[in-house]
Write a structure and sequence with these properties.
Layout (H helix, E strand, L loop, with lengths): L5 H18 L9 H10 L8 H6 L1 H13 L8 H23 L6 H4 L16 E3 L2 E3 L1 H13 L28 H13 L6 E2 L3 E4 L2 H4 L1 H4 L6 H8 L9 E4 L10
Parallel strand pairs: 4-5
Antiparallel strand pairs: 1-2, 3-4
């Protein structure tokens, strides 16, 4: 068998590599593994946060936030990739907001410290940038997630750094696991007696079900149907529903 010249084999190898590069799909979305590691390190099983620990790892945390800032979701991303991005961004920037003002007893205390005209709540403050656009937490929740994706389960995942919020998951949301993660958050939230107290005859629900009643009633759904989807104790239209007071104390370990 005649030998193939070295130059020819090199060219063949290069062509093979190029062929693989052009035929292998490029993954969309961003890598949330850095946030995942921080959540596993600084958030316990109850969803309580070690803000001092996050403060100690703030350099690493800021690198993740800078990556989010520079990589806004694209239309080519799947719905799951986009939603996972925005949920992680909301939770991460909420933690960053607390760190910026730490120590605080409540996120609502930050509102009184904001000295920006027409901005009276921490959720309205545009303190970060995504894709070159100054944004607030309200922009993510109301202007993007609620407006664009029409999935009330986001309310089980967005965490406003307060005791009455859903549990902050000690893992990042990812496209491949998003549906299971949101359903798990719903089960955890509805069956936590600190968040919802449910019996067949009377249900004391989180204020979330009052504040976002329009979301829960969209697409032929109702608050009762959503509760029954995740609660171990089922209710009916005859169940007396009231809403618990909201505890804004910081969700700190």
């Amino acid at each position: 068998m005649s030998k193939i010249p070295f130059f020819t084999t090199t060219l063949l190898s290069l062509f093979c590599l190029l062929a693989v590069a052009f035929t292998t799909p490029v993954a969309d979305g961003v890598d949330h593994s850095a946030f995942d590691k921080l959540l596993k390190k600084h958030v316990n099983a109850k969803g309580l946060v070690d803000y001092k620990g996050f403060k100690a790892d703030e350099k690493t945390f800021d690198q993740y936030l800078n990556m989010l800032s520079a990589n806004a979701p694209k239309s080519s991303w799947s719905k799951q990739e986009q939603m996972a991005y925005w949920i992680n961004a909301y939770n991460a920037y909420t933690i960053k907001l607390i760190l910026n003002h730490y120590p605080v007893e409540s996120i609502k205390d930050i509102g009184s410290k904001i000295k920006i005209p027409f901005v009276t709540t921490p959720w309205a403050a545009k303190f970060f940038t995504i894709g070159g656009e100054k944004m607030s937490l309200d922009n993510i929740e109301h202007g993007t997630l609620r407006k664009k994706y029409d999935d009330p389960r986001i309310h089980f995942a967005l965490v406003c750094a307060s005791i009455s919020c859903p549990r902050l998951r000690n893992e990042a949301y990812t496209a491949s696991k998003l549906d299971a993660q949101l359903n798990d958050q719903g089960k955890d939230f509805l069956n936590n007696p600190a968040k919802n107290k449910i019996t067949k005859d009377a249900a004391q629900l989180s204020k979330y079900f009052d504040w976002y009643k329009g979301d829960w009633n969209d697409n032929g759904q109702t608050v009762v149907k959503w509760v029954d989807k995740y609660s171990d104790t089922k209710i009916t239209d005859d169940t007396k529903i009231s809403y618990l007071d909201y505890n804004w104390k910081l969700n700190e370990q």
